[in-house]
Prior knowledge:
It is a single chain. The chain is an alpha+beta fold. It is built from 4 helices and 7 strands; from the N terminus they run ββααβββαβαβ. It has helices at 34-39, 53-65, 121-134, 153-162; strands spanning 2-5, 24-28, 69-77, 80-89, 105-112, 144-147, 165-166. The longest helix has 14 residues, at 121-134. It is globular and about 40 Å long.
Amino acid sequence: RELSVEFVGATIGRPPLGGEHFMIYFSEVTNKNILDVINLTVDESQKEYVAENAVSLAEAYATRNEGNIALPYAVYDDELLVGFVMIGYGTVGDDEEPPIFKDNYILWRLMIDKQFQGKGYAKHILDKVCDLVKKEPCGKYHCLLVSYEKENIRGRNVYLKYGFHETNIICGEE
């Protein structure tokens, strides 16, 4: 299933939850941090829903080599590595891709290390994803899409709570 969000109202720029202080930023994956990014892991119950970061980085590499757009980032809270995101733009030539992918951004991966889950990071990371997309680094867009496997109830709930809505568009098994 695909979710899309329009940037309106309270979904962008809300203050940190419970007065907590978050200093979230994205950093390129480099030789300096690649092993740390690869070693991030999700809770055992989520492993079937989230690709390992090494696989995601290999997919980003292949996507770029084919002339398409993949933006993989290490996610930091101040100087602490807490997760990984990967954003795509447009289509990558997959026969199963729905037409809505053309000229839109897709959050392909949102991964928060197991030790940082349940602490409010998802909302703040999604805020940064939205901030980045609004700058249109790869081109204009109509919406930001996310995908998840239908069995991933926890991921679905995170996206719905943030303000995404279901479109019921299926791409492969997501």
